[in-house]
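STRUCTURE:
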């Protein structure tokens, strides 16, 4: 898979993975795409062949989110849940992350920043893991391919979200 120039994955510390991607859309629209279930379920699917039958978001501090993906190929499921710890509308989200079937040890803390300049919105997700081992396991998983596929889908759908 070819990643766009703006898609960057780094490890800023021994417990973090950071993913950055630019979108050709206003920050408020990109924020909505990350926080409104009717939009999230259209793009946050990873590689082709997956659907998201469960997409619940209670967007308030202390509110929970829950996503469940299902493979069209074999019916396999992957679920994740978390709790919002901080919400600054159109600027920042902080939430916990725990998979139903943990593939890395412990819980992670995701901080997503949305910064707009000249109509381009940069999203930066910093995932803080409980340990270096957990970060390394996540880093080896190929998660960037699923994220890149979802972000490509989001980029193509953003023009349709303005009218939603």
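SEQUENCE:
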């Amino acid at each position: 898979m070819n990643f766009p120039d703006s898609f960057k994955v780094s490890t800023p510390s021994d417990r973090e993975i950071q993913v950055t991607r630019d979108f050709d859309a206003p920050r408020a629209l990109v924020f909505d795409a990350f926080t409104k279930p009717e939009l999230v379920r259209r793009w946050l699917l990873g590689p082709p062949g997956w659907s998201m039958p469960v997409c619940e978001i209670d967007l308030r501090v202390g509110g929970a989110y829950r996503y469940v993906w299902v493979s069209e190929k074999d019916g396999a499921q992957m679920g994740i849940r978390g709790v919002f710890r901080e919400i600054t509308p159109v600027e920042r989200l902080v939430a916990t992350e725990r998979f139903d079937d943990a593939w890395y040890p412990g819980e992670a803390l995701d901080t997503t920043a949305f910064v707009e300049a000249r109509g381009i919105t940069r999203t930066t997700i910093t995932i803080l893991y409980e340990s270096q081992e957990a970060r390394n396991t996540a880093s080896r998983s190929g998660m960037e391919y699923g994220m890149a596929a979802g972000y490509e889908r989001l980029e193509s759908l953003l023009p349709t979200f303005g009218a939603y």
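REMARK: The mean pLDDT is 93.
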